[in-house]
Structures are given as C-alpha cells and as structure tokens.
C-alpha cells in the first residue's frame, strides 16, 4: 500500500501518523521524501488496513494499493529515479549515459591496463573485466580468479576507473573488497542465497537478467537484494533465449522502457552478450541509447581473435571509440540535450 502525504506537513504529525500505522497494523513503513511530496510505503500484510480511514487523516492526500509482489524496486513506492553514485563521482542513472567497457576476461596485466587506458580515453567511466568466468564447457578458460582481481586493481590504480566484475560464489566475497560494482551474472540471477548476502553490503550490485527469465522475475531478484538493506541495484538487460539462432541471444530492447516504467532503478544494456557477434554491438548499443538506457556494458579487447574468452563478441578499442561517439550523440538527441 502507498500513502501519499499532503505537502508541507508538520514533521511531528507525520511521525505520529507513522507510529500509529506501525502500532495498529502488522506492517513496516518505508518513507520516501521527494521534492514535492512524501510517500509512505506499507510493507507486510495490509489486508486489515482500512483505506477509507487512512484517507480521512489530515496528513493524507491519497491511498493506493499495490498488487505487484516487488515493493522496494517498485516505482510507485519511489517515484524519482535512483542514481548510483560512486565515491569517485561516477554515476549510473541521473540523465547521463554511463559506459562500462573492458575485456570479457582478464588475461594479463599488460592486456587489462592497455584496454583500460584506451576505453577511458574514449569516454568509458567504468572498467569491466572477468576474473571468475562461468563457462558452458568445463574445459574452457575459467578466468584468473584472485590473480585477475589483483590485475584489475592494478588497472584501477593506473586509470582511476572503478572496477565492475562478476561474482560466482558467496565464498568469494572476501576477495571483492576492492571491487566497486559487483556483477551478478545471468546464471546467478536466481541464486537467492548469494543475492541475500549481497544485500547486506553497501556496494552497488549490477544484476543481469537471466537468459530465460521474465521482467518480473528480474525485479523480484532485485527485491531480494534490496530487502536486505542494499538499495544500490542496477538492472541489466543482456538478451534472452528464443528460438532464433542467428544471434547468441535476442536483445529484448522493449525491456528498457518497461523496466524504467515499473521501477526506479537504473537500467543498462549489454549488447555484447545479447548478440554474440561484434558487428552487431554498435547498432544494438545505439538502439539502447535511443530507448533511454542509463548505460551500456561492452566487451572490448585489444586482440579479439586471440582472446581467451568470447573474442567473437568483443570489439577493438578503435571500434569502441567510434561507438562511444555515436551512442553519446544519439542519447543526447533523444534526451533533448
């Protein structure tokens, strides 16, 4: 249930009203204070709450019941967009297009540092790179693991770019202290025990949609993180599995405006995993910018033909520079900037 309070209400009256709600009903109350109004979100069993009684209170402007099972991720409870801001000032959300770029997997210090310097020069604000790699085949390269995280830290020291990298197990959490944004991959989107542990952190979580999951299931996974106290969640559309075989996955471009309508959380797009082929990354990235995505996460490798992981869907630093200019222009045009 959502209760919108009348503007310019006495704080003492508001506090008294909230305490009365808590003492009278089996609910918890989340308060969101916006520029023009204050919204109370009632979580729990609201069946016993009398809508008419609540609406009759002096401080109340309107009352509305919410049917969706996700509450904290729901835009109805939090009308304004959430903006993720890192200590260095980098942002995801808030009217800018955040570019996250780097190789699928970390292979050496020279490789990751070279790519980091190149993508930063082209406008990337975040460095992505896989240290732990979930692969379909057990015989494929699984990543450099802890050593890969150390090399990412070296690249961060050289460039100042915050690190975005994927976690695969709760056991690896102690290794991620220096990671700025922890990525949950598509295969772990419904690893609920992992999500609950990440919810106890005060660190941004980039949550990728599972390859066979609905939009509501993605939002429910975000809810698992937020229910534990961590409100810094970034949603990522990375393509879903369909009967089409020409691409690795099918990019659900409609998911971007749908998610932004349903949720206040920032939404980014991964055209690399969605397509699986390098020549499709630019047009899909442009499409994502055109429909209002808050950012892009793109695989960039200095030598794609010899990449140890996903070389076919990686672009070169020169290609990324061209892409960055185009998507920035499209985004600014669509936003009217």
Jot down its keywords:
337 residues; alpha/beta; eight-stranded parallel beta barrel; four-stranded antiparallel β-sheet; 10 helices
Notes on the structure:
The protein has 337 residues and is of the alpha/beta class. It contains ten helices and 14 strands. The chain has helices spanning 11-24, 51-55, 109-121, 146-159, 192-198, 215-227, 255-262, 271-275, 281-290, 317-335; strands at residues 2-5, 27-33, 38-44, 60-64, 84-85, 91-92, 98-102, 126-128, 163-167, 181-184, 205-208, 233-237, 267-269, 295-299. The chain has an eight-stranded parallel β-barrel with strand order 7-8-9-10-11-12-13-14, surrounded by five helices. The chain has a four-stranded antiparallel beta sheet with strand order 2-3-1-4. Helix 5 crosses helix 6 (215-227). The chain is elongated.
The count of helical stretches stands at 10
Largest sheet: 8 strands, parallel, barrel
Q: Percent of residues in helical segments?
A: 25-40%
Tertiary shape: elongated
Order of helices and strands: EHEEHEEEEHEHEEHEHEHEHHEH
* End-to-end C-alpha gap: 37 Å
Low-confidence stretches: none
Report the C-alpha radius of gyration, rounded: 21 Å
The overall strand count is 14
Strand percent estimate:
15-25%
Query: Average pLDDT across residues?
Result: 94
User: Strands of the biggest beta sheet: in what spatial order?
Assistant: 7-8-9-10-11-12-13-14
What class would the helix/strand composition place it in?
alpha/beta
């Amino acid at each position: 249930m959502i209760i919108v309070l009348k503007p310019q209400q006495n704080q003492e009256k508001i506090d008294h009203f909230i305490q009365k709600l808590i003492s009278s009903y089996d609910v918890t109350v989340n308060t969101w204070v916006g520029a023009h109004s204050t919204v109370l979100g009632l979580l729990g069993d609201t069946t016993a709450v009398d809508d008419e009684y609540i609406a009759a209170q002096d401080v109340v402007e309107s009352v509305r019941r919410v049917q969706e099972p996700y509450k904290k991720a729901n835009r109805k409870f939090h009308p304004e967009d959430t903006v993720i801001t890192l200590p260095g000032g980098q942002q995801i959300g808030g009217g800018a297009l955040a570019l996250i770029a780097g190789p699928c997997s970390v292979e050496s210090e020279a490789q990751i540092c070279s790519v980091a310097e190149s993508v930063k020069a082209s406008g990337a604000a975040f460095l992505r790179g896989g240290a732990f790699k979930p692969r379909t085949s057990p015989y494929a390269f699984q990543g450099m693991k802890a050593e890969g995280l150390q090399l990412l830290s070296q690249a961060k020291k050289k460039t100042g770019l915050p690190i975005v990298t994927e976690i695969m197990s709760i056991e690896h959490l102690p290794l991620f202290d220096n990671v700025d944004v922890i990525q949950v991959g598509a295969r772990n989107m419904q690893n609920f025990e992992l999500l609950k542990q990440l919810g106890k952190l005060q660190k941004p979580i980039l949550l990728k949609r599972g390859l066979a999951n609905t939009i509501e299931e993605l939002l429910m996974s975000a809810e698992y993180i937020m229910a534990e106290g961590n409100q810094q969640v970034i949603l990522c559309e990375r393509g879903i599995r369909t009967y089409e075989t020409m691409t690795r996955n099918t990019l659900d471009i409609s998911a971007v405006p749908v998610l932004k309508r349903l949720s206040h959380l920032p939404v980014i797009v991964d055209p690399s995993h969605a397509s699986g082929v390098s020549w499709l990354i630019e047009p899909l990235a442009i499409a994502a910018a055109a429909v209002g995505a808050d950012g892009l996460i793109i695989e960039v490798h200095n030598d794609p033909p010899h990449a140890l992981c996903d070389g076919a869907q990686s672009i070169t630093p020169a290609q990324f520079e061209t892409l960055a200019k185009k998507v920035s222009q499209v985004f600014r045009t669509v936003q009217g900037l």
